[in-house]
Design a protein that fits this description.
Blueprint lengths: L1 E2 L12 E6 L5 E6 L2 H9 L14 E2 L28 E2 L3 E2 L14 H25 L1 E4 L2 H9 L8 E3 L3 H9 L5 E2 L9
Parallel strand pairs: 1-8, 1-9, 7-8
Antiparallel strand pairs: 2-3, 2-4, 5-6
């Protein structure tokens, strides 16, 4: 059984990039509409680490990005702006576009980018597999997981949303489940 995070819808327009980290110190990049969008989603635990699924996310120190040509004089560079955007998961939680600048210098950028692309490919496959083989139960995940655990309904794979509190209660009751980073669907 799996849980996915739910995220509010994204809007078009300018975005800001933050380097984020979880309590296990996994670092990843994420795009947001603005700083307030990050704060709102972080407070609601709507951002999950793409490595471990932790929702206790904070901003990591990051170096400013300097625009390289092509910017009009009346379009000042903003903190965190970048020429290309990474895929955004429903309004803020983004899968890593590439490891942050704090990655060890001994790993070439091309190798880091290939690794990030491979991780994205695997997470996309996880989503497809879960959607193909499990029943979506939405915000009733905790209730349905309990019913399966206590034998009140036939065992089956399910996925949906659960709050941190619900997940902790399920864990305390011995209900088997997992949390996975949930990538947005792509049109490709």
């Amino acid at each position: 059984m799996t849980i996915r995070s739910s995220h509010p819808g994204a809007s078009d327009g300018d975005m800001i990039l933050f380097v984020l980290k979880c309590t296990a110190d996994h670092r990843f990049e994420a795009w947001f509409r603005n700083g307030d969008a990050y704060e709102t989603q972080a407070a609601a635990k709507a951002i999950a680490c793409p490595v471990c699924g932790d929702t206790h996310i904070t901003k990591a120190p990051m170096a400013p990005r300097i625009a390289k040509g092509g910017r009009a004089k009346d379009d000042p560079a903003r903190e965190g702006s970048a020429p290309e955007a990474a895929p955004v998961a429903g309004g803020g939680a983004a899968a890593p576009a590439a490891p942050p600048a704090s990655a060890p210098p001994s790993v070439p950028a091309e190798l880091r980018e290939r690794f990030a692309a491979e991780v994205m490919r695997h997470l996309t496959e996880v989503r497809r597999t879960v959607e193909t083989n499990c029943d979506y139960v939405g915000d009733r995940f905790a209730e349905e997981a309990r019913r399966i655990h206590y034998g009140e309904t036939d065992p089956r794979g399910i996925y949906g949303e659960a709050t941190d509190k619900e997940a902790e209660e399920l864990k305390e009751e011995g209900v088997t489940f997992g949390r996975i980073p949930w990538l947005p669907r792509t049109n490709s």
